[in-house]
């Protein structure tokens, strides 16, 4: 088995895998907080780190048919969300290549409570 390289994100506000604590995304990469995942609220990100992709799968989501890949934490292999590979509706094309992370699978590090 090879050595696992884990990328650490700079900055005070970072989303981490809830299960193992490895960095997953930066607050600066958030595109939208108005998404729903399988288990509640989710965020759309431009980029994520320390994840692996599952196979392409056509899935009917709230906004229509999409080709997606589930994304898994590269350390603990827990499913964290999915990546939009292809959107079939023209008004959904902006999602292609972007990532959904489910809020209940993430810890927020460096965030102040309001």
From TrEMBL:
GO MF terms, alphabetically ordered: metal ion binding
Span of domain Yippee: 13-110
One Pfam family in the UniProt entry: Yippee-Mis18
Position of the signal peptide: none
Keyword Zinc: yes
Alphabetically ordered keywords of this record: Metal-binding, Zinc
Family label: Belongs to the yippee family.
Protein name stated in the entry: Protein yippee-like
Organism: Eragrostis curvula
Organism ancestry: Eukaryota, Viridiplantae, Streptophyta, Embryophyta, Tracheophyta
């Amino acid at each position: 088995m090879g050595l696992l390289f884990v990328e650490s994100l700079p900055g005070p506000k970072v989303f981490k895998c809830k299960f193992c604590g490895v960095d997953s995304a930066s607050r600066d990469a958030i595109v939208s907080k108005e998404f729903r995942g399988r288990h509640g609220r989710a965020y759309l990100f431009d980029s994520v780190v320390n994840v692996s992709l599952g196979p392409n799968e056509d899935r009917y989501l709230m906004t229509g048919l999409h080709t997606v890949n589930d994304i898994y934490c590269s350390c603990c292999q827990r499913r964290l969300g999915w990546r939009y590979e292809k959107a079939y509706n023209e008004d959904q094309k902006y999602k292609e290549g972007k990532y959904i992370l489910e809020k209940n699978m993430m810890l927020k590090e460096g965030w102040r409570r309001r």
